[in-house]
Amino acid sequence: MPLPPASGTGRYFAKAAKSIRLLRHGCTNRPFFHISVTQRRRPNSLPVIEQLGSYDPMPNMDNEKLVALNLERIKYWLGHGAHVTPPVAELLGLAGFFPIHPRSYMTAWRNRATERENLAKEAEKAAEDKDA
Amino acid sequence: MIPKNLFLKRSCPLIMQIAETHRKPRWLPVAKSKIYRIPKRPEVSEEERLELLRINNNYKTQMRAIRRFYHEEMINEKSSLQSASSEMSQQLEADEWEKCVQINEKWNAQVAAEREQRRKIELAAMEDYALKRIEAKDKEFKGRIARASAEIRREKELSSTFITPDNLEAAIDHALANPVDYNYAIDLRGNIVSGRDTPIVKPEKKDQAVA
After folding, report:
1. What's the confidence (pLDDT) of residue B201?
2. 0.80 cut: is pTM over it?
3. Are residues A25 and A75 in the same domain?
4. CATH number reported for the structural domain that contains residue A4 in this entry
5. Residue A102 distance to chain B (closest CA, Å)
6. CB atoms inside a 10 Å sphere around CB A18
7. Where exactly are the structural domains of chain B?
8. GO cellular component terms (chain B) (predicted)?
9. Do A80 and B74 touch (CB under 8 A)?
10. CB A85 within 8 A of CB A21
């Protein structure tokens, strides 16, 4: 099935709830996302109202994950009461447009905890090897 | 008769489910292998739970404020747009347009000058390249002519020994007077015995013995 056009041809009701969400546009093993506004209770296979940016989750040759945001239009849609899905809220938080999302904090501290555990395990192993 | 799997496989576009296409249809039951599986609950410590609660509450409060801010901004903008259709604002807009046009023309002139300069440099480079190519071609042709003339000279020198209709008789006489036999035999040691009618001296006996 062809992907919906990014140009924003989707029809919508003015008073219906909108949502700013990620829309997967990559192919197999190559994720790529458009950040777009759609009507909230509509599947991603339909045309969107407007594209507000893009997000490439795969690090490029400079080890960067690129995000493009049309902040002016995001402001416009927020003013019109659009909802923001958690992944987009996280991205906007990291971009400095929103406060940092709680989930970002949570993943960060959990990652730190696992790293600490791994380091402790390695240290223990090294000590055992020395003893033996 | 309608096949049983028609609806499940969604091969019929009329009855397509309006949902994410990569999901299992809602009406299919739990898979047999997963029917008694109880997913493990995530373990969140009390401390972490409280921390998450706190930061989530903070986040929600801040987000509410941000939302309200943008909503109010939108309302302000709307009202200002409505009041913007007055004559004074139109005058202002026209002035700004004039200013923009002037700036644009200035930039265009600047870019045109740069373009002209760049074009001159490019043209010079192109001419240089073409001249170089012409010179190289000339050199090649000259070399070819020189090689051809050398060949002609060599041929002319050789032509003194050619047989022509004038000296044809003399050449025939000379050839008949001096017959040359180019046939020769060679033995295992590499000795060349020239002539077809040369008498064979020693190897004759050996050959006979072998035979």
Report:
1. 62
2. no
3. yes
4. 3.30.1320.10
5. 6
6. 22
7. 49-83, 91-156
8. mitochondrial small ribosomal subunit
9. yes
10. yes
